[in-house]
Write a structure and sequence with these properties.
CATH superfamily of the largest domain: Alkaline Phosphatase, subunit A
CATH architecture of the largest domain: 3-Layer(aba) Sandwich
Largest sheet: 10 strands, mixed
Number of helices: 11
Structural class: alpha/beta
Strand order of the largest sheet: 7-6-5-4-8-1-9-10-2-11
Strand content: 15-25%
Number of domains: 2
Number of strands: 16
Shape: globular
Oligomer: single chain
Distance between the termini: 78 Å
Low-confidence stretches: 3-18, 445-453
Radius of gyration: 22 Å
Helix content: 25-40%
Length: 453
């Protein structure tokens, strides 16, 4: 028995010290259409790497983000709280001198909590949570950062674009030149992070926020050539950008496999909002949110219901999960997975999904989910079970049964006045815990104005 015991002892010594704590990888696409990846049903855009990830994941069919456009969704993911509670309801303008246009300094962040849980933290990609140095990712809980600090960026070095889209990339607080197609660049940097920290005694968290397939529509020729079957120029370029995104994610997944970290890595994948309703060169919309109604910026389903994957092979069985959940849940779920639930702030709106996703707990993670754009009195939505109420400004409320009508085509408000009354009251109660936006979005199509001193 002694040789066997000695052998087992050696194996225990060789095992990673953090085996019980998974790595955490948060992957965000930007403006991805609901039906523009294979695992969502697209027959037009090939996404083999995301489809493989989906096959290893729980595909959450009623998965949401907390806002129908860019920066507020990211603020929600970073804090686990409805961003309306701290005034982050708009996109911050590119104002490096502004100490208000960015993620509130009063908020505790996801990476800062993961640091306390014993993690090395890194961020790669689009930031869009403030341009002032105080908002830099490394001031908000990340040990490492590489990416574009603004709300978007050109994809090819030297390509034309506005001032914000041509800023240098940033590595750990220092400017760095862009050297390749940006989606590929971000994928390479993320894979390098995974490889660099594979042998360390600490687990890691990586926030990988692509700006693809957000405009400008710029794609590598190799992908454009492979998608000649798509006739519309804008749709084809957008599709090629999705393919490049898929390939970049594939590179990260390959590095996880190569370094034998895949089994114990908790991965989230979402888009920051639905595909935008923009006219392409041929006068057609180039994203596909079907079967949903609406698009980016709207509180119809197409604005904030997104492709949503959760994968942790060591703990979560692949399949589908149909209860409503939201990206605010990423933070408390990761802390629970890291066996550090005691670090979870008491004021979170997100919940720990692990008992629900594992089947340990039945029922719904959230009784109610809320959305708002435009501040108090703006556009609102609330979901309770399958029932969703929305109100566009001062218009009459609309009510839909998403279980029977995911496309929000039959307004049931007149048939169910009691439900309308209850959900309108629920919104009013929720709004008591929110504040007005603390900064305004820059006007579309115009460069951000300089703040007067």
């Amino acid at each position: 028995m002694r040789p066997i015991l000695s052998f087992l002892f050696v194996l225990l010594l060789a095992a990673p010290a953090f085996a019980a704590k998974p790595n955490v990888l948060v992957i965000i696409a930007d403006d991805l259409g609901y039906n523009d990846v294979g695992f969502q049903g697209s027959k037009e855009i090939p996404t083999p790497h995301l489809d493989k990830l989906a096959a290893q994941s729980l595909r959450c069919t009623n998965g949401y983000v907390s806002h129908p456009f860019c920066s507020p969704t990211r603020a929600g993911i970073m804090t686990g709280r409805y961003q309306h509670r701290f005034g982050h309801e708009n996109n911050p303008a590119w104002l490096p001198e502004s100490t208000t246009a960015g993620l509130s300094q009063q908020e505790t962040t996801f990476p800062a909590l993961m640091q306390k849980a014993g993690y090395t933290t890194g961020a790669v990609g689009k930031w869009h949570l403030g341009a002032h140095p105080q908002f830099h990712p490394m001031k908000r809980g990340f040990d490492e950062y590489f990416g574009a600090l603004g709300g978007g960026h050109v994809y090819f070095p030297g390509a034309g674009g506005g001032a914000e889209y041509n800023i240098p990339l940033n590595r750990n607080g220092k400017d760095e030149a862009q050297t390749k197609y940006l989606t590929e660049h971000f994928g390479d940097e993320a894979a390098a992070f995974v490889g660099r920290h594979a042998a360390e005694a600490k687990p890691w968290m990586l926030y990988l926020a692509f700006n693809a397939p957000h405009t400008p529509l710029q794609a590598p020729k190799e992908w454009l050539e492979k998608l000649k079957h798509i006739e519309n120029d804008s749709r084809r370029t957008y599709a090629a950008m999705v393919c490049a995104l898929d390939a970049a994610i594939g590179g990260v997944m390959a590095k996880l496999d190569e370094t034998k970290q895949r089994e114990n890595t908790l991965i989230y994948f979402v888009s920051d909002n639905g595909g935008p309703n923009l006219a392409g060169k041929s006068g057609t919309n180039f994203t596909d949110n079907s079967p949903l109604r609406g698009a980016k910026g709207m509180v119809y389903e197409g604005g904030m219901r997104v492709p949503f994957l959760v994968s942790w092979p060591a703990k979560i069985k692949p399949g589908t999960y149909d209860q409503p959940l939201i990206a605010l849940d990423f933070l408390p779920t990761a802390l629970a997975a890291a066996e550090s639930a005691e670090l979870t702030p008491k004021n979170l709106d997100g919940v720990n999904l692990l008992p629900f996703l594992s089947g340990e707990k039945s029922g719904v993670p959230h009784e109610l989910l809320f959305w708002r754009t435009g501040g108090p009195g703006g556009n609102n939505a609330v979901r309770r079970g399958s029932m969703k109420l929305l109100r566009n400004g001062k218009a009459e409320p609309e009510l839909y049964d998403l279980a029977a009508d995911v496309g929000e085509s039959k307004n049931l408000a007149a048939e169910k006045p009691e439900v309308v009354k209850e959900l309108v009251a629920a919104i009013a109660e929720w709004e008591k815990g929110t504040i007005a936006p603390t900064f305004q979005s820059p006007k579309a199509g115009k460069p951000a104005a300089k703040k007067k001193k």
